[in-house]
Amino acid sequence: MSLMRKPIPVKEAVQLVMNHTQIGSSEKVPLDQAYGRVLKEPIIAKHDVPPFDRSPYDGFAIRAEDSKGASGENRIHFQVIDEIGAGHLAKRGIEKGEAVRIMTGAPIPENADAVVMLEQTIEQEDTFSLRKPFDTGENIAVQGEDAKEGKVLIEAGALIHPGTIALLATFGYAEVEVAKKPVVGILATGTELLQVHEELTPGKIRNSNGPMIAAQLSRMDIEYKSYGLLGDNLDACMEMVEKALAETDVLITTGGVSVGDYDYLPVIYEKLGAEVLFNKVAMRPGSVTTVATLGSHLLFGLSGNPSACFTGFELFTRPALLKMMGGTKPYLPRMKATLGEDFPKPNPFLRFVRAVWEMTEEGPVATPAGFNKSAAVSSIARGNCIIVLPNGTRGYTKGMEVDVLLLGVEEGVAKWEL
Ligand code: AMP
Ligand code: MG
């Protein structure tokens, strides 16, 4: 195994992963299970919304022309012939000088073309008066004003959020065509690793990456198969990777991907005949992140260092999984923020800093979340975003404008622009 690895730019690495990611098939799920899934069919308006002209207020439906000439000195009186709440129809249309007392959401009676709000009237038994003329169409929610039948409202590939659910329900989608979720496996490697319930012993640490990746997947509403943790043993790891590949579409491993004596993942990729897309990325943390393909399988070899592992998942694994599901906005959303404190370290590589962003009166401010080496675990816990610092500079000072990648936001973006 050659120790020479050529780092490639992050953008190129992301592109390579995405180019080798295939879009999977779809399935139908009941509407109440569709939240968080990717739409595989566009939402086309099956009917006008609203489906009939209706009142947006509680008031009286009138013929606008009957209100002509009304003023404070010349109040015009109407005869109320009916009253309807939402869900009901007026018994008959109105004629000259007549009105229907109407509540929000009720269909406009025939011949009526304006609604007078209750507050704009003085009522007396079954009559009322008003003091201003109304225009034709005033205070009418017109059929189709929200959506016209046949119009494509949401494209396939959109992530289904609560608003999407509302639209699907509006059109009676009891079932929704969504992307099948990829089956993802997680395997942690490292002889030093203990399970979460085990007591610390000299030289050992608990496996934090496995549970972290599981939660990163859960945040995407993707289930996973855990292949537990294995020591740095080539045969055992090889066997488990083969088993995992037979059962999953995507295998995420952590650890063992570097150039150390006990880093066996590179050997395993070679033995499997997997195509390594890259094994060095010009980024910190996570420069050893390796991605390989084998048939339609994707293998993400994430670093064992927790911050590197976390970042590798968010930058490479997450968008690939979203693309597999047909997602059209697979990348983390980005915004500009002001750097909240100095970050004096020079950046030979593009740097991703776990950070906390907050809205202030001067706009969003992002501050590094503490100890920020690639081995850091505490800053991942505190961070709610990742600051992106371009390479080739001699550190950053408080107050500079920086790019920030937002974590845990439902809707991503379509383009990778870093
Ligand atoms: P490696 O990528 O195997 O060279 O590991 C890099 C560093 O990450 C070492 O200090 C490991 O002990 C640590 N590490 C590896 N795997 C894990 C894990 N699953 N959870 C927490 N730390 C880990
Ligand atoms: Mg290791």
Name some characteristics of this structure.
Molybdopterin biosynthesis moea protein, domain 2, binds adenosine monophosphate, six-stranded mixed beta sheet, alpha/beta, Molybdenum Cofactor Biosythetic Enzyme, Chain A, Molybdopterin biosynthesis moeA protein, domain 3, elongated, binds magnesium ion
Strand-helix topology:
Elements: H1 10-19, E1 26-30, E2 43-44, E3 59-62, E4 76-84, E5 98-102, E6 114-117, E7 121-124, E8 127-130, E9 152-154, H2 162-170, E10 175-179, E11 184-189, E12 193-194, E13 205-206, H3 209-219, E14 224-230, H4 234-247, E15 250-254, H5 265-272, E16 275-278, E17 283-284, E18 290-294, E19 297-302, H6 306-324, E20 334-339, E21 350-360, E22 363-368, H7 378-382, E23 385-389, E24 401-406
Parallel strand pairs: 4-5, 11-14, 11-15, 12-13, 15-19, 17-21, 20-22
Antiparallel strand pairs: 1-10, 2-9, 3-5, 3-6, 4-8, 7-8, 16-18, 18-19, 20-24, 21-22, 21-23, 23-24
Helix pairs in contact: 1-6, 3-6, 4-5
Bound molecules: adenosine monophosphate and magnesium ion.
Structure description:
By secondary structure, the chain is of the alpha/beta class. The strands form six sheets. It has a six-stranded mixed β-sheet, with no helix packed on it. The chain has a six-stranded mixed β-sheet with strand order 14-11-15-19-18-16, sandwiched between helices. A five-stranded mixed barrel has the order 20-22-21-23-24. The mean pLDDT is 96. It has seven helices and 24 strands. The chain is elongated. Helix 3 (209-219) packs parallel to helix 6. It has four domains: 10-25 and 180-324, MoaB/Mog-like domain (Molybdenum Cofactor Biosythetic Enzyme, Chain A), CATH 3.40.980.10; 28-47 and 152-179, Molybdopterin biosynthesis moea protein, domain 2; 59-130, Beta Complex (Molybdopterin biosynthesis moeA protein, domain 3); 334-406, Beta-clip (Beta Barrel). The structure holds adenosine monophosphate and magnesium ion. The site of magnesium ion (MG) has 5 residues, from loops. Adenosine monophosphate is lined by residues 188, 190, 192-193, 205, 207-210, 254-258, 260, 263, 303-306, 375.
